[in-house]
Amino acid sequence: MGASGRMGQMLVRLVDDSAETTLAAVVERAGHDWLGRDLGQAMGGAAHGLVVTDDVDGALAQSDVVIDFTTPAVSVALAHRAAAAGVAHVIGTTGFSDEDLAAIAQAGQTGRIVRAGNMSLGVNLLVKLTRQVAAALGTEYDIEIVEAHHRHKVDAPSGTALMLGEAAAAGRGVALDAVADRARDGITGARAQGAIGFHAIRGGDYIGEHDVIFAGEGERIVLRHVASDRALFARGAVRAAIWAQSAAPGEYSMLDVLGL
Length: 260
Ligand code: NAD
Description:
Elements: H1 6-17, H2 39-42, H3 56-61, E1 65-68, H4 72-85, E2 88-91, H5 98-107, E3 112-115, H6 121-136, E4 142-149, H7 159-172, H8 176-179, E5 180-182, E6 196-202, E7 208-215, E8 220-227, H9 231-244, E9 250-252, H10 254-257
Parallel strand pairs: 1-2, 2-3, 3-9, 4-6, 5-6
Antiparallel strand pairs: 4-7, 7-8
Helix pairs in contact: 1-9, 4-5, 6-7
């Protein structure tokens, strides 16, 4: 779903390349100039054999699972159609409202859904580890989260940095809002014990780097994830799609896919 998008094109290549998956159908929005064209030629290469369609139900009828990196409105509607068709739904789309999330949860009562704002296997592992380390260490270890992204990124801290902050706060049994310390500048006073600090580097072509630092007296523990290729998000989505085949109805996250 969303075959011509940045993630969509990457997913087409990965699904085609994997011995475990077969591309059954490719869907784009009504009016898109890829509709009716051969997928491979639309992507600027040799003929593929699949024709790009906007017939969602026809595509679902030929599929075991739909991988969806589109927009919130599209993903919410698709969650219900996929559930009705008995097709598992992997949602990589981000930016959902609370109402959207409630609607997806409702679809998950009968459908099989995997939804994650970051499909990277490593980042999801880092979230889990951050929670564990924060739970194991007391507040005498200061937690600082440092992230770096390319110069075009418009929001800070990154959504992933906030996910890591939530995990650290959960490990300590506190609410992140109560302890987050963002964008220090000037005479800020000494660091408050238990604070979770955030720092954002912006520049060049960083794809995404996250450090979670636990700074104690005489030692520091640093958990680090470095993304060096956007394909890692697509690889996570394909892994989720394979996992979803044998899942019971419900809404799952990448932590479930990873067995974490
Ligand atoms: P994009 O704009 O390049 O691609 C979105 C595609 O969806 C477009 O080709 C668009 O035509 C298509 N689309 C829109 N409406 C449609 C419809 N009704 N039917 C079928 N296709 C439709 O965007 P992108 O960079 O590929 O990102 C897409 C989403 O995935 C965003 O929400 C982004 O934040 C998210 N994302 C998530 C992860 C993750 O790890 N979860 C990683 C990267 C991007």
